[in-house]
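Page 37, continued from 36.
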């Protein structure tokens, strides 16, 4: 291949009397641009970006102020739509709650449903801790198919979950782990009734879809 020699400028000092060939200068600029683009792409890839989580599992729920009893939470949920800020932190909008098999008055089921925002942190070993604060409602029903039947109150709750994650495809993952939430709501069934106070502990299995391919964190 023919090699290009630098041009010489007679009236400049010896140390400054050469200039780079235009082709060499163009290659240098192109290399710099490619390095910048690669750096940007690496940063984008490192950010998990948007994701969707669908999570359900069985649990045990207890009401402390009125019923003073525990019941089986047939289906508890902890769904979320989130955005990974980086490899560690993610913001999320989520919904949690559960359908409890527990008799109250003439009803047989209690449904807790809360919707709010939170934050998750990813530990080494692909373990995530998520916290969520939410506003929600208490509903009573005769059958599980009508769990949104009679409204019994509304209030605020908090949810914490710890999950181990496994990638099963380029953008799909599964998680498994415990969750617990506390929910306090006013009681509208009768005047002067005590507020409802519920706690639930459950085991969850989650399915996640990442819109960008996630990176493994060791």
């Amino acid at each position: 291949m023919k090699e290009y020699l630098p041009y010489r400028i007679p009236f400049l000092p010896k140390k400054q009397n050469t200039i780079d060939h235009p082709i060499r200068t163009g290659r240098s600029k192109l290399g710099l641009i490619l390095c910048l683009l690669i750096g940007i792409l690496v940063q984008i890839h490192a950010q998990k970006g948007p994701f969707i989580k669908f999570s359900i599992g069985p649990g045990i729920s207890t009401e402390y102020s009125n019923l003073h009893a525990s019941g089986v939470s047939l289906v508890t949920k902890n769904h979320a739509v989130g955005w990974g800020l980086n490899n560690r932190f993610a913001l999320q909008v989520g919904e949690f709650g559960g359908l409890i098999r527990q008799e109250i008055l003439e009803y047989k089921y209690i449904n807790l449903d809360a919707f709010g925002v939170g934050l998750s942190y990813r530990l080494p070993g692909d373990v995530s801790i998520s916290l969520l604060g939410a506003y929600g409602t208490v509903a009573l029903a005769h059958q599980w198919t009508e769990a949104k039947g009679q409204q019994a109150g509304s209030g605020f709750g908090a949810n914490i979950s710890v999950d181990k994650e496994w990638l099963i495809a380029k953008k799909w993952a599964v998680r498994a782990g415990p969750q617990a939430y506390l929910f306090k709501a006013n009681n509208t069934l009768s005047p002067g009734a005590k507020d409802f106070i519920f706690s639930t502990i459950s085991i969850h299995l989650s399915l996640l879809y990442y819109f960008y391919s996630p990176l493994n964190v060791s």
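Strands lie at 7-8, 18-19, 49-63, 69-84, 89-104, 107-123, 127-141, 150-167, 172-185, 196-210. Flag for discussion at group meeting. The longest helix spans residues 22-46.
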